[in-house]
Amino acid sequence: xxxxxxxxxxxxxxxxxxxxxLFQSISKHLGVQTAYITxxxxxxxxxxxSYNEKEDIIPEGYSVAYGDTYCRLIIMNENNEMHKxxxxxxxxxxxxxxxxxxxVKGFLGVTLKDPTGGVFGTLCVMDKNEKVFSQEDIDYLHxxxxxxxxxxxxxxxxxxxxxxxxxxxxITEGIACLSIQGIMDANRSEQMINxxxxxxxxxxxxxxxxxxxxxxxxxxxxxVAFSNLVQSLHLMGIETILTGITPTIAMHExxxxxxxxxPIVKVRNLESALKHIGFKLTETxxx
Length: 287
What we know:
By secondary structure, this protein is α/β, with parallel strands linked by helices. It is 38% helix and 24% strand. It has a six-stranded antiparallel sheet, sandwiched between helices.
């Protein structure tokens, strides 16, 4: 798997959500009881998402050492696929411990690629009964894997945008500015807190000026992450100065009084923030 594609399992929200919607159709189309997606780790294959029609054959989170998996055989195959009528009778798969553990027979699996073309994991189906898979069945599962590969790309794009959309601007020694834009969902909030605290610690920051001009408040809810960020900065000895309080935020604060309970200084703009710190902006003449 590509080193660049190093998201935690919890980051694959689109892949997991979409696969769950597809599994039932895949199961019905191929006439199998179970469908699942695995992710290849350094030394094991782990089930990210699964569907079990009757009994819980493959639970999510199920992990097997790479050398003992069907996935290894799929990935090593030049066609990126493997299909068995009966796993317990096949000369190779019958020796694997996982075969006796799962107690399944019919199996079909294909490689699931990441956006760079590297191996992400596998898309597999299995059944308690013997199952003969036609070339049409195999082609169908490859198509489903291609669809899920595009979903993987959406997850990585979202992850990268969230990570990059925390614009910290160093102003001068000990002073940095953060502009919060758009909607602060859970993923982006976590990235913001981690990046700001890391910057504060590594750069010896004394003041963080946070501008809220572009923050969108949905359903009247001010981001809890902002309160956590301010309190964490306070514990680190970093003073937070707040600018860009829009009419929407002001009306929200009038009703909820959240900002007044935080250790922050509220000013109108960047110039006022710098003045509070002790800096003054002066205009220079250009000759």
